[in-house]
Amino acid sequence: MTQTASRTRLPGAGVLSRQRSLDLLRNGNLLVVFLLLCVVAALLAPEFLTTRNIANLLQQSSLTGIVAIGMTLVILTAGIDLSVGSTAAFAGMLVAVLISDGVHPILAIVASLAAGAAAGAVMGGLSAYLALPAFMTTLAGLTSIRGLTYLLTDGTPAGGDLPEGFQLLGGGFIGHVPIVGLIFIGVTVIAALVLRGTTFGEYVYAVGSNREAARLSGLPVRAVTTAVFAISGLLAALAGVLLTSRLTIGQPTAFSGLELDAIAAVVLGGTNLFGGRGKVFGTFVAVLLLSVLKNLFNLVGLSSFFQMVVTGLILVAALILNRVLENRGDR
Amino acid sequence: MSEPQTPLLEMRGIVKRFPGTLACDGASLSVRAGEVHCLLGENGAGKSTLMKILAGSYRPDEGEITLAGRPLRCTSPQDGLAAGISVIYQELDLAPDLTVAQNLFLGRAPARGPFVRRRARSAAAAEAIRRVGGTFSPEDRVRDLPIAAQQLTAIAKALTMDARVIVMDEPSATLGERDLEVVFSVIRDLAAEGRAIIYISHRLDEVSHIGDRATVLRDGRDVGVFDLATTSHDELVGAMIGQARELVRRADRPEPTGAPRLSIEHVTVGDILDVSGIDVRPGEIVGLAGLAGAGRTTLLAALFGAVRGEVRARLDGRPLPVAGPRTAVRNGLALVPESRKEQGLFLGLGVARNAAIAAHGLVAPRTRGRKKTAPVLTGLGVKHASPEQPVGQLSGGNQQKVVLAKWITRGMRVLLLDEPTRGLDIGAKADLYRQVRRLADDGVAVLLASSELAELTAHADTVWVLHEGRNVARFDPRTTPEADIAHTVITGAKP
């Protein structure tokens, strides 16, 4: 028996090459749109291409971006995490409170990240082991974790005199590059490597692609589900810690609505909301795209009300485009 | 009753082809008003296809249907209902969260403008329930009713649609004996009103009890119409299995020897499965025969830990722990499930990923994974354009081989095959069995469940017959005529 018999006509071969070019188009089109948008921005607003503006842009998008990477993993398993905004706010407050109470900053950071991961693991675990819908467990998380955040200080901001080193984390620069931007890029690269190169990554796709087949193949379906929520919680907590570090203060009201921004970026990045298909790179580009868009609006002086309308319309347009390309790919 | 009269329903020369199979090959059926007409046949004889054509779910490739002398052309189930044909499927397509009244008039509720006339609907529903002898209220939620009452609801629904032909697909499969008697008396009343009832069942006792006449289908064709009052069970069974079926040539193999690898001591699942004393030796293929619902799938799923049951079994002499698929896989069990697309494969993922997913520590797109999956896929002859090609794009036969590849890459001691050739053409079937045989020759113990008796007798070393959840007889397919096994499959007893 010969390897995939080149003599016999393979019905799949033509389909596949077309599939590949479509994949390229689908993955590439976001990048193309992103670059075009940058060109337009540079033409419309000369200050767009200044290092200062680019650095600002990266700094603003990084926190949402870090959370969106975690969200990508969750959505790849066909789950959803609505609690990220509250988790981020909680971790941001916790780290400020702990440091103010004299805990060593590194220990405070580790504790806050652990708290985020634990919260994610609980919500994911409830959904995995008791078969509760993730939408509901994380919606419950959204409210109760936000409540806990307020309870920490009775609703007032925390911190104020955080150590200089800690402030560098969220607000510092290396050369012209903001440290949070580097962290965002690092998180993206690690997530991409994990998804591409580890068994866990394979399982994430498998669970999202066909849960029942994954179960009957002996995969640790419930552990994988729990793990992606823990990772999402961890990354949300990281975003919270970074914000506190930049603002030098913990804000209990921070990050409201973050979950929607993150989900929007993930879906815009081409990840299937029903699991099994998608890449963190798509999410990465989508996060930048959304924030360039916002930046552009600001530079040309569009009101924020108008911005909201246009951002929504662009999301819908992108989804329609993806659907059109996908239908063509399925044929 | 048996006065000659013109039939109410006639189906003549129905042909229906599906890719790779001929489901109906000139089947005819003639049913009189006022009779309970049974439809008999082995698995795959064409009963369900014929009834789906009658209902309008499928369109026949050839043949004609007349209802009360007028040609009937249904292109959708709605047409069938409008013409007065109502099919009550085994799984009763009722909406479980709606009330009985809502179900009875689904889509046809009496209304004034946009408002449902609840009271009128309730009254009409109560009347329909009374006619089928039900004692439940029209406002009861279907989910809360016992199965028998749900069955009556489905019949009442047929009545409210003024059905002239009512098809009942194995109602006894889900009913207990006393409930069945209630349903039977309703069926007799309906027939007495001049309706025609087509009753599908595997159980011959029941058929002679309720039916007036029976049409037997075999291989997509009608082979005879019998007056049930004067026909013995043996005659019916003979018609169902046919007499002179060709013996499939078997490859001669050495007798598997050695201690059993898998020893099924006792497996029970609720009250639907109670199996004991089946052994599978390394290199042996043990076939499981039985009618639909006889427990083949449940037995395999219970062994694999995919459904919960009481399992006492030994693997290579040691007790087999059963805690779930994960444990099963760790112990070297492998399951090729009944429905490969829903349970076996990740359709959107690539061929290589699918093949590597069960093997721990293998990452398919990387070289290490490739090295392991490529020879397996080549050895099985999986035709694919590249390792990244999504499995969903492959043909059925190649998809099934990818499911096998998944387990070969991992390695296994026991292979559980559930209906592995469903939907495959003859060439792909032969190819698949060749691969299974090779695995057996390498020492894997194979448990093969199939509704295709010919495949079992051709490929299995031993055939066990399951009947209503019990393993009733064991045959050596080399020395037993297939007809004897078929007889046992239908009746549950050796001829």
Overview of this protein structure:
The complex is a heterodimer of chains A (331) and B (495). Chain A has helices at residues 11-44, 51-76, 84-100, 105-129, 134-153, 164-171, 179-197, 199-209, 211-216, 221-247, 258-268, 280-300, 304-330, and strands at residues 158-159, 173-174, 177-178, 249-250. Chain A is built from 13 helices and 4 strands. In chain A, helix 1 runs antiparallel to helix 13 (304-330), helix 3 packs parallel to helix 5 and helix 4 (105-129) runs antiparallel to helix 10. Chain A has one domain. Chain B has 495 residues and is of the alpha/beta class. Chain B folds into 2 domains: 9-241, 3-Layer(aba) Sandwich (Rossmann fold), CATH 3.40.50; 262-491, Rossmann fold. Helices cover 34% and strands 24% of the residues of chain B. Chain B has helices at 47-55, 77-83, 100-104, 118-131, 147-160, 177-192, 204-210, 233-241, 296-304, 325-330, 340-344, 351-356, 367-380, 396-410, 426-441, 453-459, 482-491; strands spanning 9-18, 21-31, 36-40, 62-67, 70-71, 85-88, 111-112, 115-116, 165-169, 196-200, 213-218, 221-227, 262-269, 273-280, 285-289, 310-315, 318-319, 333-336, 414-418, 445-449, 462-467, 470-475. In chain B, the strands form 5 sheets. In chain B, strands 6-9-10-3-11-12 form a 6-stranded mixed sheet, with helices on both faces. In chain B, strands 18-19-20-15-21-22 form a 6-stranded mixed sheet, sandwiched between helices. In chain B, strands 2-1-4-5 form a 4-stranded antiparallel sheet, with helices on one face. The longest helix of chain B is centred in the middle third of the chain and has 16 residues, at 177-192. Chain B is globular. The model of chain B is unreliable at 244-248 (pLDDT under 50). The chains are: A mainly alpha (331), B alpha/beta (495).
